[in-house]
Amino acid sequence: MEKPNTFTPHRCFLGQRLCLSDKDYVPGCGTYERKGYIYSTLAGTVKIVKQDKSSIIEVHSISDQSIVPAPGEIVTAKVTIVGQRFCKCVIKCIGETVLTRPYRGILRKEDVRATEKDRVEMIKCFRPGDIILARVLPMKEVHSYQLSTAENELGVVIAHSEEGVSMVPISWTEMQCPKTFVKEPRKVAKVVPETILVE
Hints:
The protein is an all-beta fold and 199 residues long. It contains no helices and 16 strands. It folds into two domains: 51 residues, CATH 2.40.50.100; 123 residues, CATH 2.40.50.140. The strands form four sheets. It has a five-stranded mixed beta barrel. It has a four-stranded mixed beta sheet with strand order 1-6-7-3, with no helix packed on it. Strand 9 and strand 10 form a beta hairpin.
């Protein structure tokens, strides 16, 4: 495998192995490290940012979308499909930055809670349309980002009742419609931010 300084910036595809990851070359935006190699998280152009003791390998998309979800980051996502073993999401924000293009995410049953994982029922944690806070896990699939809500601060932050009213969290596991007082089960985030950057 060639070192980055032996080739000029070129185009790459999603999930492509770019080079070795070591003290000289570290992953930057648009890339991630796995088993000693740096991979691309999107299709785009490879760029090398030289620093004092190392070089950062970055990938910028052709559409100039420079920010992409990276392992360890907190994202805001909208739940689209809820199944028995996982739910599918659309990632809308990274931190407080609204993305110019959405990314697909998947939240598996075993990554919903830190404890009692075998007792998790997805339909009692999330519903389509819910807005959640989740942490990005290391990539295992090239077509979607794996997410986790297995922390107190992560989970559902906005949910609407059947009446279309924003529900209020009343416990770690329930939210309530202030209009009908009907309670619905959710994996509730500990803190509901004052402003969520998703319409």
